[in-house]
Specification:
globular, about 70% helix, about 0% strand
Length: about 180
């Protein structure tokens, strides 16, 4: 595996910024808002691969951790990472890496399957963190997972279609043609 280079940093920065943009498009739904972050987390993996996808989400988290308003509701800082949505946020790099396993694939089924696995990582870590805060696994599942499943499955399908469209056109440097 080669070292991180300027190209890696550039792509990571772009997809970190896109994830922030996705966070700002937010619909409140209880403790955890519906955003487009998941769409961009999956796209970062699908289009950049596991390593660059992971780096893009680390970039996003670091920007938020130092206080830049990149999280939902234009928030930032360590309190957000330790708050109700912290588990979901911390799962983003892992989820992007999982989605990145579809990087060289041309099949929608592989993209969707790995996208759903990545989504499972986000849900698992988010649910676990929310369980600690709410002291109830059932309540955490009710407010932090269940309301989002249908919309996130749609985002997963959309990410798969978009990634394959970009790959077919070869519009992104480094994306396998």
């Amino acid at each position: 595996m080669r070292d991180v280079d300027v190209e890696d940093i550039s792509y990571a920065s772009v997809f970190g910024a896109l994830t922030a943009l996705g966070a700002w498009i937010s619909v409140p739904l209880g403790e955890v808002p519906v955003t487009l972050q998941v769409l961009f987390v999956l796209l970062s993996g699908f289009l950049l691969g596991a390593k660059r996808g992971f780096l893009s989400q680390i970039t996003y988290l670091l920007a938020g951790a130092v206080g830049l308003p990149v999280f939902a509701k234009f928030s930032g800082g360590p309190a957000v990472i330790y708050g109700p949505t912290g588990g979901y946020l911390m799962a983003f790099p892992i989820a992007a890496a999982v989605a990145g396993l579809a990087y060289e694939s041309r099949g929608l089924l592989r993209h969707v399957a790995l996208g759903l696995l990545a989504l499972g990582v986000i849900y698992l870590l988010g649910w676990a963190r929310l369980t600690l805060l709410l002291d109830s696994p059932e309540r955490a599942f009710e407010v932090g997972v269940l309301p989002f499943v249908a919309v996130d499955v749609v985002k997963t399908l959309l990410a798969g279609f978009l990634a394959l469209s970009v790959k077919r056109r070869g519009n992104l440097v480094g994306v396998p043609a």
